[in-house]
Design a protein that fits this description.
Largest sheet: 9 strands, antiparallel
CATH topology of the largest domain: Pnp Oxidase, Chain A
Helix content: 25-40%
CATH superfamily of the largest domain: Electron Transport, Fmn-binding Protein, Chain A
Structural class: alpha+beta
Distance between the termini: 26 Å
CATH class of the largest domain: Mainly Beta
Number of strands: 9
CATH architecture of the largest domain: Roll
Order of helices and strands: HEEEEHEEHHHEEE
Number of helices: 5
Number of domains: 2
């Protein structure tokens, strides 16, 4: 079979303006819960796309750790490639793709750092190995071989034992949404696309996009 011949006709569900909540965060919560109930693999995984100062985009998968009316949060190394992109250009996009439900959610907005208190609370809730790893890895920087990373981990274990503090370079970001699109796959590629756009007063407008 040719790659060009690989396709799936989406037929599970539909999405109408009358189906969705007035608030996109509430609508996301509904879809996210349905993804969890359906045992979608890595339902909390999302693609994060950033753009550096030269205008070059970059994408990677990260895990959402919290969402509420303020926005969508994840944690990482602030000195990583994505952290450098965000420091240069604080606008980014998130993408959830729940293939088992034939759904996507696209989110665009501005990124801000979360508070030190929130960072500390989440860091100390992580498994011990993950806390050690946050110290051991200089994320996105070159390393000659795996053994060098393992040596760095040994040094962290010797220094901190089972009480590693949160590194200053590690913490959370929040994407404050300005646009959220809910995409439901439909037959013959005539997909349903319902988009929320934030107004100047903080309210949301709802519209439909052509597939």
């Amino acid at each position: 079979m040719s790659i060009a011949d690989i396709r799936k006709d989406y037929q599970q569900a539909s999405l109408s303006e009358t189906d969705v909540a007035a608030d996109p965060i509430q609508q996301f919560a509904t879809w996210f819960d349905q993804a969890l109930q359906a045992d979608v693999a890595e339902a909390n995984a999302m693609s994060l796309s950033t753009v550096n100062a030269a205008g070059r985009p970059s994408s990677r998968i990260v895990l959402i750790k919290e969402f509420d009316p303020r926005g969508f949060c994840w944690f990482t190394n602030y000195d990583s490639a994505k952290g450098n992109d965000i420091a240069q250009n604080p606008y980014a996009a998130l993408l959830f793709f729940w293939t088992a439900l034939e759904r996507q959610v696209r989110i665009e907005g501005k990124i801000e750092k979360i508070s030190a208190q929130e960072n500390d609370t989440y860091f100390h809730s992580r498994p011990l190995g993950s806390r050690h790893g946050a110290h051991a890895s200089q994320q996105s920087r070159p390393i000659p071989h795996r053994a060098a990373l393992e040596d760095q981990l040994v040094a962290v274990l010797e220094k901190y034992g089972d009480q590693p503090p949160r590194p200053e370079h590690w913490g959370g970001y929040r994407l404050v949404p300005e646009k959220i699109e809910f995409w439901q796959g439909r037959s013959s590629r005539l997909h349903d696309r319902i988009v929320y756009t934030r107004n100047a007063d903080g309210s949301w407008s709802i519209g439909r996009l052509q597939p």
